[in-house]
Design goal:
Among the domains are: about 180 residues, 3-Layer(aba) Sandwich (Rossmann fold); about 120 residues, 2-Layer Sandwich (GMP Synthetase, Chain A, domain 3), CATH 3.30.300.30. The chain contains 17 helices and 26 strands. Strand 25, helix 16 and strand 26 form a beta-alpha-beta unit. Helix 1 packs across helix 9, helix 7 packs across helix 9 and helix 10 crosses helix 11. The radius of gyration is 23 Å and the shape is globular. Bound molecules: adenosine monophosphate. Adenosine monophosphate (AMP) binds next to strand 14, strand 20 and strand 21.
Length: about 550
C-alpha cells in the first residue's frame, strides 16, 4: 500500500536528540535554574516511558497537574510515546471542575507539582479519583499529601533504561486530552490524536504559522495545561530550538530575567502576561535585544500592546485558536504585498486575529446559515475544519451535537473577514467570560448569586478590562428594600465559598428588569451595550486572572 508511516510525535524527539544533542532545555524551578540538553532529555524521557509502561499505563490516561518546566516537558513525549494519553489539567479551575475532569478522564496516574499539592488536596475527592492508582510529585522529595500512594518523579523513573523500545503507533492513537469550559454544564474534553498533534506541529512550522528554527530560544509562558502550551514545545523540539520554561508563578521580573539571561528570541502568552512585561520593561532597564517576536493569543490583544512592543523593536504577533483547534487556527502575519502599506493599514491588519494557517478551511455564516461576504463589515459565526480541528467532544454527544456541523466546528466566535482574508473577532456567542486567558462561567455565577434570597434575578456579563481583557459583572434585580451594597458583599461571599476568588464579579449593578431575547433568554448583548465599558472602575483584584501571575 502506498503511503508513509503514520504521523506521530516520535520523529520530532528523535530528530532533536540526534541532530542537536547539546541544545539546552532550561527551566526556572523553585530551587533555581535547571539546565540540561536534548540528549539528557531524551534519555530521561525513555526512562519515563519505561516507568509508565511498567505501571501499566499504555492505552490509559495520564494526568498532569503542573506548571511549565522540564519534567512536564518530558511527559509531553513520554506519555504519548508509549501509547498513553497525556491529560493536562488546569489547576486554576474550581475544585468541583477538577473532580469532574479527573473522574471523566479516569486518569490512571497523576503527576503533580509540589507547589500545587495543596490545591490538589483541596480538590481531592476519593469518590471522584477512584481511577488514580498513583501520584507522582514533580520533584526530588514528597511534601505532606493527604492522598496516595505517592512517589517522587526521580524515584519513579530511576533504574529504567535509556533505550526504551518506542512502539510504532497509529496516527489515530489518542495522544492528548484537554478540557475546555463551555457555556453550559461541565467542562468538555478535547482529545488530540498523534496525527492531530503532528499536523499542528507541521503547520506551526510553516512561515504562515509560528515557525521555530534551531537558533531560536523559545519561552512558552502560556501554561502547559492550556492546549499543550499552544503546541509550542512540540514545534520547539521539531525545530531544534533551545527551550526556556518559566516555572511556577513567574512575575514580569522573572520573565525579563529569563529573556536577558537565556537570550530568548520568541515567547508566547496571553495579553495579560505581555501587558505586565511591557510595564516592567518600561520602568526598568531591560535588554530585549535578543527578543525578536512575541506571540499573543487566547484573547484579543489591545493596540497599545502592539505599539508598546514596537517601541522596543519586538514584533508582537497576534494569533487565534481554541482548545478544539489544537489550538492555532489563524496568525496575523502581514501578506507580502502589505509590507509597504502605510503604518495604519499595517497595524490594523496585525490587530486582527489574522490569516488562516495552511491546512485549515473556514466559513463565516450569519443567523440564517448564509455565508457572509469578505468585506470587513458583514459578520457571522466562524466555522473551521481541518486535520487538527476536533470533530467531537470526549464522551459528550450532547455537546458535540450543538458544536459541530458535520466536520465543521462552530467556534462561537463572531467575526468579520476583510478582502485580504484577515479574520477579526468582533463578538462571541458563548456565554462565558474570559479573564486573563481563563474562563469564568457566567451561568454558574448567576445560579450562585440567585441563591441569595434578596436577588430576584441576576445576569452576569463580561465587560472589557484593560489588564484582564474581560471581567465579570453581575446585573441584579434586588428584592424591594434590599440594600445593594450589602447584597453585593453577601453575593460575593456566596461566590467565594464555591469558586476561586478571581471568579467574584468586580461589580454588582442594579437593574429594574433584565432584558430578554425573543426566545426568553437573558439578552446579554443588550446588557453589554448598556453596562459595557464603564461598568468596572479601577483595578480588578490582584488575583483576578491567575494566569498573569504564572
Ligand atoms: P480556549 O479554548 O480556552 O483556548 O478559548 C478559545 C476562545 O478564546 C476562542 O473561541 C475565542 O473566543 C477566544 N480567543 C482565543 N484567541 C483569541 C484572540 N486572539 N482574540 C480574541 N479572542 C480569542
Amino acid at each position: 500500500m502506498p503511503g508513509g508511516t503514520p504521523q506521530t510525535l516520535r520523529p520530532f524527539l528523535w530528530r532533536a536528540a540526534n541532530l542537536y544533542p547539546d541544545r539546552e532545555v532550561v527551566a526556572r524551578t523553585a530551587g533555581g535554574i535547571t539546565r540540561y540538553d536534548y540528549g539528557e532529555m531524551a534519555d530521561r524521557t525513555a526512562r519515563l516511558a519505561g516507568a509508565l509502561d511498567d505501571a501499566g499505563l499504555v492505552g490509559e490516561r495520564v494526568g498532569t497537574f503542573c506548571w511549565n518546566h522540564h519534567r512536564h516537558f518530558e511527559t509531553y513525549f513520554g506519555a504519548p510515546g508509549v501509547g498513553a494519553q497525556l491529560h493536562t489539567i488546569n489547576p486554576l479551575l474550581p475544585d468541583e471542575h477538577i473532580q469532574y475532569i479527573v473522574e471523566d478522564a479516569a486518569d490512571g496516574l497523576l503527576f503533580v507539582d509540589p507547589s500545587l499539592a495543596e490545591k490538589l488536596a483541596s480538590a481531592y475527592d476519593p469518590d471522584a479519583f477512584t481511577s488514580v492508582e498513583q501520584f507522582v510529585v514533580m520533584g526530588e522529595s514528597v511534601p505532606e499529601i493527604p492522598f496516595g500512594p505517592v512517589t517522587d518523579y526521580e524515584s519513579f523513573i530511576e533504574g529504567y533504561a535509556t533505550d526504551y523500545d518506542w512502539p510504532s503507533l497509529s496516527g489515530d492513537r489518542p495522544a492528548g486530552l484537554c478540557y475546555t469550559s463551555g457555556t453550559t454544564g461541565k467542562p468538555k474534553g478535547v482529545e488530540y490524536t498523534q496525527r492531530m498533534l503532528w499536523a499542528h506541529t507541521m503547520a506551526l512550522q510553516t512561515p504562515q504559522g509560528i515557525p521555530v528554527a534551531d537558533d531560536d530560544v523559545v519561552m512558552p509562558v502560556v501554561p502547559m495545561f492550556h492546549v499543550n502550551a499552544w503546541g509550542m514545545p512540540y514545534a520547539m523540539t521539531a525545530g531544534g530550538a533551545k527551550h526556556v520554561y518559566p516555572g511556577p508563578a513567574p512575575e514580569p521580573a522573572d520573565l525579563a530575567a529569563l529573556i536577558e539571561e537565556e537570550g530568548v528570541t520568541l515567547a508566547a502568552g496571553v495579553p495579560t502576561v505581555w501587558i505586565g512585561l511591557l510595564e516592567y520593561v518600561e520602568d526598568n532597564d531591560i535588554d530585549l535585544s535578543t527578543l525578536d517576536r512575541l506571540v499573543v493569543g487566547g484573547a484579543a490583544a489591545p493596540r497599545s500592546l502592539f505599539e508598546g512592543f514596537d517601541r522596543h523593536g519586538v514584533d508582537l504577533v497576534h494569533a487565534w485558536g481554541m482548545t478544539e483547534t489544537s489550538p492555532v487556527g489563524t496568525v496575523a502575519h502581514l501578506k507580502s504585498d502589505l509590507e509597504d502599506a502605510d503604518a495604519e493599514t499595517r497595524i490594523e491588519k496585525r490587530l486582527t486575529q489574522g490569516l488562516v494557517v495552511p491546512g485549515l478551511e473556514f466559513r463565516v455564516v450569519d443567523d440564517e446559515g448564509t455565508e457572509v461576504p469578505w468585506d470587513g463589515e458583514a459578520f457571522g459565526e466562524l466555522l473551521v475544519r481541518g486535520p487538527w480541528v476536533t470533530t467531537e467532544y470526549f464522551a459528550r454527544p450532547d455537546a458535540s451535537e450543538e458544536s459541530f456541523e458535520g466536520d465543521w466546528l462552530r467556534t462561537g466566535d463572531i467575526v468579520t473577514v476583510d478582502g485580504d482574508g484577515y479574520v477579526k473577532v468582533v463578538d462571541r456567542t458563548k456565554d462565558v467570560v474570559k479573564s486573563g486567558g481563563e474562563w469564568i462561567s457566567s451561568q454558574e455565577l448567576e445560579n450562585t448569586v440567585m441563591t441569595h434570597e434578596d436577588v430576584i434575578e441576576a445576569a452576569v456579563i463580561g465587560v472589557p478590562h484593560e489588564r484582564w481583557q474581560e471581567r465579570p459583572v453581575a446585573v441584579v434585580v434586588p428584592a424591594e428594600g434590599a440594600d445593594l451594597e450589602t447584597l453585593a458583599a453577601e453575593c460575593a461571599d456566596l461566590v467565594r465559598a464555591e469558586y476561586p476568588d478571581w471568579w467574584v464579579p468586580d461589580d454588582f449593578l442594579r437593574i429594574e428588569e433584565i432584558p430578554r431575547t425573543a426566545t426568553g433568554k437573558f439578552d446579554k448583548k443588550r446588557l453589554r451595550e448598556r453596562f459595557g465599558a464603564d461598568a468596572v472602575e479601577g483595578e480588578a483584584p490582584a488575583e483576578a486572572a491567575p494566569e498573569a501571575a504564572e
